[in-house]
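Design review, sub-item: ligand-bound model
Attendees: FS, YL, KQ
YL presented the inputs for the NDP complex:
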Amino acid sequence: MALLPHSRNLLSSIITSANRMIGMRTLMSKQLVYNEFGDPLNVVKFRECSVPPLGSQEVLVRMLAAPVNPADINTIQGKYPVKVNLPSIPGNEGVGIVEDIGKEVKGVCPGNKVIVTKSVQGTWRNIAVFKKEVLRVVPDELGVVEAATLTVNPCTAYRMLTDFMPVRDGLVVIQNGANGACGQNVIQICKAWGIKNINIVRNRPDISELKKYLECLGATYVLTEEELRTTNIFKEKKIAKPSLALNCVGGKNALEVMRHLQHSGKMVTYGGMSREPVTIPTSSFIFKNLSFHGFWMTAWHEKANQTEKDKMINDVVQLMCENKLKGPVHKMVKFDNYEEALGNALSSKGFTGKGVTLPCLPAVPGDEGVGEIVEIGSLVCTVEPGERVVLSSRLLGTWRYYGVYHERDVHIVSPNLPLPEAAMLSIAPCTAYRMIKDFLQVKPGETIIQNAANSPCGQCVIQLCKAWGINTVNIVANHCGYETVRNCLLDLGATAVYTLEEAEELAVFDTSLTRPVLALNCLGGRYEDVMLKLLERDGVIVYYGCAFAMPLVKQFLRCDATFCRFHLSDWDAQASCVEKDIMLNDIVQLMVLGKVKAPVYEAVELKNYTQAFRNTVHCEAFSNVNYVFDFTLP
Ligand code: NDP
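KQ shared the predicted structure:
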């Protein structure tokens, strides 16, 4: 395994030198920009422009994700105290993959995953040139969301728990806005460092759900603003009075929080969400000797030396890699849909949007396919005319007779690979492969449970598991064609097939199988509940497809289980060429041996595309027909 990064870098550098030799290639960057301060929904525009040549100390980065933070919105509104020269590209933090480096750049290589560590560098673009000094290499295994959101909130939480009071020595911390992105980082870092913490949130109809969620993250106590006023946790000595208060709300809320501080305690204000000033009673200064401070991450960065910055980032990355610090609850938004993310951040519900970089319209549809190389450019060195290839990258448009693709986006497949398998290789089989491999080391003899087992992905899960000696329990809807489906799945290698109702009856997992250690959920609702009921203690449930939202309440009910999401395009965006090659070769080998078959399909001529749409749109849970455009049809 240690070979992977090295080989990938080698491959990347071959491609990079080829690109340099081409020289005249014009690389285009899709980006957001604003020319005046104002309402983000009015002033932020989308543009596409060519990427300038790389300076000797510069790095070309393909961005993977960049969040929308309150500070980004305030900066665009012209209300944030940082100097911005217009026109400006918004976005203060983000993660990407290095594509190319300037002649004098050291310590960063093509293929490295990097984060932007300095504010106002403009991360809301898909391709960017940054000065080397504003980037920092992070481990490949660091999650995209964690990496993209690392420098603002986790670092703010880290600093506030480090710089003001020796809270790690058994002192208690209290904070308001505890449900915010920064607040959730405070809770998790407190848990990791063994600090008792009291968390104040606004009351809401689902308050018990929110309390359980924050407790799962590591909150010692979660109180509403009203409960804080009357609480007797201090009187009854359930917990000592806090020595450090973190305030991002202000107004009455901050006043109530400071009332509970220990003598000589400190309040650190880092935000003002209520827009009300912090009012301090005179007695707090005189009789309680409280002190009041402000914290601003940007100012800290200006003063801190490199050693302090390195230690902080290393510590935060380590906590994230150890899964002790998770990325915020978020919604990935296509870059094209940036207005949704901005609107979300401006709404009263607060921000949940993160931008990701995906291509813009107009686009040729079609996400996977197989073809034969007709012609290659003069510097192409990895494929030859006549070779059969599948597309190994996404969203490149396959619904066309001829397409021009970069050599790194195609993968040579054996001529012995049947065409239907090749045409449907890069989504369902790859999704199944990754979900079985990436979340848990499922051993032969162990069991995986899945719903929508008759889908192309479900069928691939069954076949891959059979090939690897893993049992599968498969849940499908009850339907008039159920018996046929059941037999078909058993033929593919399913260990057990149940209807939803049958599975719900399994009060105890009463088969000869072991309880499933991994659940693959693409449906949600009752289909998800039944899998959670049957899942082994400390098991893992992966959400993919339609079931991308992970309901908080279910996470509390099964707080032993790990809840994960999978999206193939997220994996694709970060995977190295070598990782993709290994996966595709593994799957192709199984397909050539007949161990993984393509789902049943019907060939359609491209010009009859509406037929495929009509049928696919109306496809029922039991439709076992997938449509494939067959370009060889007359
Ligand atoms: P989020 O939007 O994720 O969270 C905001 C939190 O504030 C939520 O918990 C929300 O509660 C709460 N809140 C909002 N309005 C009120 C109100 N009127 N009364 C009580 N609670 C309220 O933001 P972040 O965590 O990312 O940031 C919080 C603040 O900290 C922002 O002002 C941000 O600019 C600032 N910040 C400052 C930094 C610095 O360096 N100084 C660094 C990072 C952030 P609810 O869930 O009920 O909506």
